Amino acid sequence: MNCSSEMFMEIFNNYFSDVVAYAEVRTGNDNRSESVRRELEQLGATVVRKFEDNVTHVVFKEGSKRTLNKATKKGVHLVSVLWVEK
């Protein structure tokens, strides 16, 4: 199968179209959540700023125990920032 670059980009940009993501990403005292949100949006994900009932994925690094417990309790996909990187 020969895929044109336009077709590839269309597929790539919609790769996360079924994802509703909440990001809580910190490195030490730095909050990196906003940059992760932007990248998720570029990949086609819906990004929310509050952990709502429709969240399917939580991108998590050094976040709050409350967020970790909520993601575990709700059974959503808990993923690292590596999942988002291009």
Automatic annotation (TrEMBL):
GO terms for biological process, alphabetical: mitotic cell cycle
InterPro entries given in the database record: BRCT_dom, BRCT_dom_sf, Microcephalin-like
Domain BRCT: 11-86
Phylogenetic placement of the source organism: Eukaryota, Metazoa, Spiralia, Lophotrochozoa, Mollusca
Xref: CDD domains: BRCT_microcephalin_rpt1
Species in which this protein is naturally found: Dreissena polymorpha (Zebra mussel)
SUPFAM superfamilies: BRCT domain
Coiled coil: none
Protein name (database record): BRCT domain-containing protein
Transmembrane segments annotated in the record for this chain: none
Matches recorded under Pfam families: PTCB-BRCT
